[in-house]
Amino acid sequence: xxxxxxxxxxxxxxxxxxxxxxxxxxxxxxxxxxxxxxxxxxxxxxxxxxxxxxxxxxxxxxxxxxxxxxxxxxxxxxxxxxxxxxxxxxxxxxxxxxxxxxxxxxxxxxxxxxxxxxxxxxxxxxxxxxxxxxxxxxxxxxxxxxxxxxxxxxxxxxxxxxxxxxxxxxxxx
Length: 173
Fold this sequence. Notes:
Number of domains: 1
Strand order of the largest sheet: 1-2-3-6-7-8-9-10
Distance between the termini: 34 Å
Low-confidence stretches: 1-20
Number of helices: 2
Shape: elongated
Structural class: mainly beta
Order of helices and strands: HEHEEEEEEEEE
Radius of gyration: 17 Å
Strand content: over 45%
Mean pLDDT: 84
Helix content: 10-25%
């Protein structure tokens, strides 16, 4: 099922890429926070979205991408462990409000993140953003959060994988 959802996400993004209207592609780097900082020192990824202008200064669309968390050594209940790298593919609704007299915006992506690591579930995905935009690109700072469960020594652990990200997206017209 997970592979089918991943394939569907890339098929949607591929179909959107053919249209060229309202498409933006980019990437992000970030610092994990919360539970994610226990397992990862660094995160990076790619972003893609297709936006439609719904009203003056407001865009609505779909977003996807991939966020990769680099693993690290950590301690849990007095024992030392090595975390593997892990990642998520978000499937989200994206909303963006641009301020009329300033080149800044606020945005929110909200949806579900699919885990690409065995033993780790996906979960609710949210990413509020604040940024600066020009005609061909946008820079943003965002807080990405993913609710997830993982199997750990025969027990289920609830985690909130968060990251403060800096990103850049380019508009493709």
